[in-house]
Amino acid sequence: MMTKISRITLGLFASLLVAVPAFAQLPGTKDPDAKELAAYQLTVPALNKVLQATKNVSEAAKNDPRYKKQAAHKAELKKLEEKEEPTEADEARIEKLRAEIESMGNSLFPDTDTQTLSQMAAAMEKEPLFAKALASAGLPAREYAKFMFAYMSAGMEAGMLEQGVIKEVPKELAASIHPDNVKFFQAHKAELLAFQKAMEALDQP
Predict the structure, then answer these.
(1) Is 152 within 8 Å of 23 (Cβ atoms)?
(2) C-beta neighbour count of 24 within 10 angstroms
(3) Model pTM score
(4) What whole-number distance in Å separates Cα of residue 51 and Cα of residue 124?
(5) Is 78 helix (H, G, I), strand (E, B) or coil?
């Protein structure tokens, strides 16, 4: 089972840092968190802590009743979908399972589509399993949230620079992205690749 956060990280690097929908709506310049995010600088130690925290929450989720139920539903759904000639009862069950899995969502992980930094951090602190995982990694929820938002925004720009889509970070974005964060992606490809592989491993049975 892949968590929402690990899907974001994987998608970011594997697709040459093209935008991932879950983080498409980054806080704007009018957001109360914008200045704090713009001042946040990505570092390798922070990258390692984020990875450890994500590993912690992923491991803990495996023993969580909510995710055990979801995993059982997914396993049943897979078997039914692999049938060459499913019956009407099978088709009905498939639709029901899909709906139930969709409704379960990723309840341990905050929905980042419209959230600010403060809202995302608060959502993680509110979930005991996530809060414990972060504490074990020595990483405050707000730090985790800042890293992910900064990682995504700088990653998109680094990806476009690498692909030749842009020649420099657009001026309208320079005020919301720490300049060293784009350089971080360019200078730490080995660490980022290792990060990607470690995140991929979280989804292995």
Answers:
(1) yes
(2) 11
(3) 0.69
(4) 16
(5) helix
* Of 187, 193, 153, the residue nearest 170 (C-alpha): 153
Task: Pick the closest to residue 90 from 81, 98, 99 (CA basis).
Answer: 81
Q: Which two tokens stand for residue 132?
A: 């414990």
Average pLDDT taken over every residue of the chain: 75
Amino acid at site 142: R
Please give the Cα distance from 143 to 157 (Å, whole number).
21
d(CA 144, CA 136): 13
Distance of CA 108 to the CA centre of its chain: 12
On the 0-12 / 13-18 / 19+ scale of CB atoms within 10 A, 87 is: exposed
Residues in the chain: 205
2 burial (CB, 10 Å; 0-12 / 13-18 / 19+) is middle
What pLDDT digit, counting tens, does each position of 156-167 carry?
A: 777 776 666 666
Distance CA 25, CA 192 (A): 23
Rounded distance, CA 147 to CA 132, Å? Answer: 18
